[in-house]
Design a protein that fits this description.
Length: 141
């Protein structure tokens, strides 16, 4: 299996968020969201499908596999816990907290992310009101 890169994780997160908002993830929309060329999206889709993170049917869009969905939930958990840290502890507003969380969400270890979760007593929501997903190793799943 190929190494899962941070760029791949960015795509997984974007595909999940598009599906969560009711949009079908298609190459053109994904390219706009990630500010890349459609050809770059096509190449990445092939890589994501080859490692089992998405199911892709040309001209019909893509869908996360269970493994891909699990990865997306983990990334969003990290992001939303960091938003909580930046808003509640550092004092940033929700928009800036989100922007800063996006910059570092993939850099922290699971141990550090779980420590943030514990420090905030396993919060249910980020400052924007979106759910913070549980991790069975931290809050019992």
């Amino acid at each position: 299996m190929d190494e899962i890169t941070n760029a791949m994780k960015d795509y997984i997160k974007a595909i999940f968020l598009m599906a969560e908002s009711g949009d079908q993830a298609r190459t053109t929309e994904l390219a706009k969201k990630l500010q890349v060329r459609p050809a770059s999206v096509t190449e990445m889709i092939r890589r994501l499908a080859s490692v089992g993170l998405i199911a892709y049917e040309p001209y019909h869009g893509m869908k996360l596999t269970d493994e891909g969905k699990g990865m997306a939930l983990n990334i969003l958990r990290r992001h939303r816990l960091l938003e909580k840290l930046f808003a509640d502890f550092v004092g940033l507003d929700a928009a800036l907290s989100c922007a800063e969380a996006s910059k570092v969400e993939l850099l922290l270890s699971d141990r550090t992310v779980n420590s943030i979760c514990v420090a905030f007593n396993h919060p249910a929501n980020c400052p924007c009101g979106k759910p913070i997903y549980c991790d069975e190793k931290c809050c019992g799943g």
